[in-house]
Fold this sequence. Notes:
Layout: E1 13-16, H1 23-30, E2 40-43, E3 50-53, E4 56-59, E5 64-67, E6 74-77, E7 84-85, E8 96-101, E9 107-108, E10 121-124, H2 128-132, E11 135-136, E12 152-155, E13 158-159, E14 162-164, E15 168-169, E16 182-185, E17 191-192, E18 204-207, H3 211-216, E19 219-220, E20 234-237, E21 240-241
Parallel strand pairs: 1-2, 5-7, 6-8, 7-9, 8-10, 9-11, 10-12, 14-16, 15-17, 16-18, 17-19, 18-20
Antiparallel strand pairs: 3-4, 4-5, 12-13, 20-21
Amino acid sequence: YSGSVxxxxxxxxxxxxxxxxxPETIIxxxxxxxxxxxxxxxxxxxxxxxxxxxYVLYDKNKTKLIKCPSGKSGSFSIPSTVxxxxxxxxxxxxxxxxxTIPTSVVSMGYYAFYQCSxxxxxxxxxxxxxxxxxxxxxxxxxxxxxxxxxxxxxxxGTLLTSVTLPNTVNQFVFQGCQKLTTVTVPSTVxxxxxxxxxxxxxxAVYYGGTLEGWLSNITFVSAGSNPLINGKGTLYINNxxxxxxxxxxxxxxxxxxxxxxxAKLYPRYRCAHFWCILLSAQSRRRPRRGKGTV
Length: 294
């Protein structure tokens, strides 16, 4: 591991020579460089592997954004030629305040936006359907994940405050979206990816199916997959608020995380402590009405 080579080094400029041929070399060497004075990346001569625009490093064809210097400040727009953002690409870019993402981007790398705490807005030029199709590789791949709580996600110029989910939801897709307050979950939803809703501001979740459907038909890959995870939301099933649960006889298993973070079900304890829950057909254990210890 060489990611700490330039850690705490107050570098201001990096010039890449012709001997460097692999993007992974740059990603690995500079992933932990947190110098707020580093504003310049340049090439020494002509490169067959890289290109530079506005001091930001790309691959030769400018389809992959490899590295933004950590001292870059203000607003930044990803070019429309870019389809992917590399691992650690914007890591430690604390002085960036606004990011614009074109619809051409379909994948965001692991830790691409780690500690990008200065963002006040992320502007995506596509629709919610386009956003939902982006592959977020892992933690901090979503630019909203490291932002301050006042940051906003705009889709085609409209602030994202509510969403209706498709049948499957990609991991980390809404991570850190504090302004997202309302989530509609149709009865056709079957899978919600890892930490899709961790760090959101959701206050209301509307499920279009039955209690049985909520308990058994949705796979919550992690506790953070549940839009209730922040402990502030109310679950409505067919527009009726859920404040107590009786497990029907027809239910053999309960999906992991169905009540993760749902404080209103059991006011004294957050259900995040009980997110990994299975009800076996043999035991048929039922909670007392009004107690969220399922």
